[in-house]
Amino acid sequence: MTYKLLLLDDEQAILNALTRVIKRIDSDRFGGPCQIKTFTSATEALACVRQEPVDLIITDFRMPAMTGLEFLREAIRHQPDVARIIISGQADLPTVVAAINDTQVFRFVNKPWDDGELQLAVVQALHVYALSRENQRLADLVRVQQGTISRQEAALRQLESECPGITRVERDENGAIYLDLDD
């Protein structure tokens, strides 16, 4: 399996360092390679989240224009099951609690980070993400077997998990399908 990671920080040097640390993780620990996309703009990162599935988001907490929590709240609207890690050099207890309670981040990592700790957090977040997806798939299979949900409903859930947003159709006031060219 290839995991897709999205890294967001307003400093390119931090993104470069994060990428180097993650690329040094042995791919056997993931069960396959990782694709990494980096962004210095939360707006551009959100456009990516709207258009393609992502398995893990690592975002800085303090950024201009949009905080990491604000970014994650919006990203979760499009991909509710994505794994999330926040990094910050200016963390206080209320900030950490808000991140955990509001966006259910998997881990809050302080800057400067320990490379081994960050690598472990990434590996663990992706393992938990994969287990969650597999548990949902198996639970849907059991529901189909018990007749609780239809095969079509299970297939739609699987499709939605692979391509978030694909099963939702927005309509205008006349019932016509609404297409957002920015998405």
> Gap between N and C termini, in Å?
26 Å
Helix/sheet category: alpha/beta
Question: What characterizes the major β-sheet?
Answer: 5 strands, parallel
CATH class of the domain at 3-129: Alpha Beta
Modified residues (4-aspartylphosphate): 60
Domain Response regulatory: 4-126
Pfam family, one: Response_reg
Protein name: Response regulator
Question: How would you summarize the topology of this molecule?
Answer:
Layout: E1 3-8, H1 12-23, E2 34-39, H2 42-51, E3 56-60, H3 68-78, E4 83-88, H4 93-103, E5 107-110, H5 115-146, H6 151-162
Parallel strand pairs: 1-2, 1-3, 3-4, 4-5
Domain Response regulatory: 4-126
Protein name: Response regulator
Modified residues (4-aspartylphosphate): 60
In short:
The chain is α/β, with parallel strands linked by helices and 183 residues long. The chain is 48% helix and 15% strand.
